[in-house]
Design a protein that fits this description.
The chain is of the alpha+beta class. The protein is built from six helices and 13 strands.
Length: 240
């Protein structure tokens, strides 16, 4: 469902009308959530744009779209308006809604907001929070057993068989829940691509390996060559 105010300065909301908990625009404002006592903190990694909160007993995650690199010094949260459907907030919300409906292991989307300010926009996304921890967090406590690496490879293969290209497949965007399931998160700029192509799929795997190498450079666990080899074998087998 879409809600919007008219004019070139407008707020657009998108959410499911039968969603639980009921939609509340306050979910896009961490200060309002803090005033209610609903805010539980923010992610330790990233750009300080992710916040954890609970609404009516449901754990949720708020993420504001923010620029990285040098361009952030010009405009950290504002992007050029080229149409509502082309905003990163709506695109990711719709991507998650489709992937979740298809049974792929992703966070269930709750709502997104796009605030248009003339020729610019800024936006936010709220998803249901997954229990567990990221692969990067898990590796701080020691190596994974081979079967967990294999499960990660199988999970990635499921997305690749469906033609889903993850724009930033790294160790912080792979979730391991408490029951042992694997999820992918953060589908900003993700796209559907040809499922028979090979270059983009291999590129995802190389990007993941580089992120693990960077963890090692920063003093973390880094790449376990044996474990990553198990991941790659399971990924290739999962592609069929």
């Amino acid at each position: 469902m879409r809600r919007s105010d008219p004019g070139t300065s407008a707020t657009h909301w998108r959410y499911q009308p039968d969603e639980t908990p009921a939609f509340d625009p306050a979910v896009f404002d961490e200060r309002a959530l803090a005033a209610r006592g609903a805010l539980e903190g923010g992610a330790s990694a990233g750009r300080g744009n992710t916040f954890y909160f609970t609404l009516d007993g449901y754990p949720l995650v708020l993420r504001h779209y923010r620029r990285g690199g040098l361009v952030r010094h010009l405009s950290e949260r504002r992007y050029v308006w080229t149409g509502l459907e082309r905003t990163r907030a709506v695109a990711e919300f719709e991507m998650l809604r489709t992937l979740h409906a298809d049974g792929l292991p992703v966070p269930r989307p709750f709502a997104c907001a796009v605030n248009r300010e003339g020729p610019l926009w800024r936006g936010s996304l709220v998803t249901h929070r997954l229990p567990g921890e990221t692969l990067a967090e898990r590796l701080t406590r020691g190596e994974l057993p081979a079967e967990r690496w294999e499960a990660i490879g199988q999970c990635i293969a499921r997305f690749h068989r469906a033609g889903v290209w993850h724009a930033d497949l790294n160790a912080s965007n792979i979730m391991l829940d408490r029951a042992g399931a694997i999820f992918l998160i953060d589908f900003d700029r993700a796209r559907r691509r040809s499922a028979v192509a090979t270059r983009w799929r291999a590129g995802n795997i190389r990007r993941l390996r580089r992120s693990l190498e960077k963890l090692g450079e920063r003093g973390g666990r880094g790449v376990d060559n044996t474990g990553f080899a198990a991941l790659e074998r399971a990924w290739r087998a999962g592609l069929g």
